[in-house]
Amino acid sequence: MDEVLADQTAPAKTREGLTEVKDVLRYAGAKGLNVEGAYGYYIDSGQPVVSYTVQAAYPDRLQFVTWWFPVIGRVPYLGFFAKSERDAKATALRADGYDVSEGAAGAFSSLGWFDDPIFSSMLNRDQAALAHLFFHELTHRTLWVPGSTEFNENLAEYVATVMTEQYLKDLGRPVLLAKYEARRRDKARLFTWLKTLKGALEALYAQAGQITPSVLLARKKDVFARYTRAPLKPTFERVDLVATETWNNASVLGEELYMPDFARFTRARQCLGDVSVRAFLDELGRRSQKTDSGFAALDSMCSDKKAYSRVD
Question: What is this structure's pTM?
């Protein structure tokens, strides 16, 4: 990265983006996130995204298809550097009868095992979104609970949001902060809508033994149709987050991975005495080793009989 920054023939946009990344990394390190060995190298990939992803779910219930890998455990997504390979996998999953959601990854984390690079496509976003992206990935690098993908993604989104807001405040960027907070309000609207949609789907799928599969799937189609148009579809400030997605069981579950219950995370952190992000992550790491779920570790912070004033 330093070589690119020193190269006056490199595009100005690239050098500006890398300068911002250095500021974000410096800030993240000061707040205790694991930046060691991360993002010291730049790759001009010539691609619009870092990788292409696919997720699958069962057509008659809100349950992911998952895959198991060493170190990270069981995950509900696959990533490919070639779009054609992703598309081939998606076609095969659809042929097997699954609901499928195709997407793209803005970044990925090797969880500290390797020196993650900066891809050129990561710089194609404003400063707030860029900070959020790196805070998210650095959270994975700092703490990953094996086999708890939903928790890990929820946690990374919570930390990235908290840190991005503070970062923009500390650097005195009120215009960017206002846009970022508007984006967060839109995500909150989507979160509320998604919870209601999930409730309707779960009520339908609970009737699986009482109605035929064909009737269930027809009613499922009707549920999605009703929730993606007025009056059940919400109104957004900046971007219509419902219209930008093709909705099925896989996309509902996939969206939920990156939509944490902020009240739940904030409450847990406050039960420790409103500690720093790093102290919060360290305590989550300790507790997750004693439970089979990251969420169980999170909730134990407030269910504990002990009184915490602070955690060092």
Answer: 0.85
